[in-house]
Amino acid sequence: MDTRVGIFAGEDPLVIARRWLAEAEGQETSDPNAMALATVDSSGMPDVRVVLLKEIEPAGFVFYTNLESAKARQLDSGGSAAFVIHWKSLRRQIRVRGPVERVEDALADAYFRSRPRESRVGAWASPQSRPIASRAALEAEVARLDAELGAEPPRPPFWGGYRIRPLEMEFWADGAHRLHDRYKWSRPVLDARFDVIRLGP
C-alpha cells in the first residue's frame, strides 16, 4: 500500500491545495494564483484562459469575472469546469474538475470592495469578451466612469464570482527521469468522501 508523505500528506485535498498555494506565494515570481480555466461552448468546442484564483474554501475554489463574458456564459450553460495551476518554481501542479456555482452576493461584494479603486472602475468600463472600437474608446469610458462612480464604486450587477466544487483533484510533482509523483483524489458526488490513488507518471 502506498503511503502519502511529505508534500502529499493530508486527509483533505483542499487543505493540501491551500498548503501548496501558500508555498507558491513565497516562491513564485508572478501571480502564484494564476490558473488555466477550461470550459466548453454551446457547440462543444473547448475553451481555455488564465484567471486568478482568489480563495480556496472548504467547499471549493473561487474566482471572479464579468458575468456577461464568454467564460461566464459557458460556465452558466455547461455547469462544470476544469482548471490547472502549474508552479514552475515548485515543479508542481494541481488539476481540478467539477461543477460550478455562482458565489453569494455578500461574498462578491466583499471581494469587490477589497480591489483597488482603479480595478473597480475598470470592471464597470470593460464589456469583457465583446468587441470595442479602440483602446482610446475604452480609456474614454474609464475616464467617464472614474468621474461618475465616486470614491467607492459599488460592484456592477454584471460582475461576480464562481465556485468550482471538485469531484476530481490531481496533485503532481516533478520527479527525476520523468518518474513524476501523481495522486488523484475523486468522489462520485459532492457530499461523498474522497478516495485517493497513486497514478503512474
Main attributes?
5 helices; 10 strands; single chain; 10-stranded antiparallel β-sheet; 27% helix; alpha+beta
Overall description:
It contains 5 helices and 10 strands. It has 201 residues and is an alpha+beta fold. Strands 1, 2, 3, 4, 5, 6, 7, 8, 9 and 10 form a 10-stranded antiparallel beta sheet that branches. The protein is elongated and about 60 Å long. The mean pLDDT is 95.
Helix content: 25-40%
Output mean pLDDT.
95
Radius of gyration: 19 Å
In terms of DSSP E residues, the strand content is 25-35%
Structural class: alpha+beta
Instruction: Give the number of DSSP strands.
Output: 10
End-to-end CA span: 17 Å
H/I helix tally: 5
Outline the secondary-structure elements.
Layout: H1 13-25, E1 34-40, E2 46-52, E3 55-56, E4 61-66, H2 70-78, E5 80-87, E6 92-102, H3 105-114, H4 117-125, H5 135-148, E7 159-164, E8 168-173, E9 181-186, E10 195-199
In short:
It contains five helices and ten strands. With 201 residues, it is an alpha+beta fold. Strands 1, 2, 3, 4, 5, 6, 7, 8, 9 and 10 form a ten-stranded antiparallel sheet that branches.
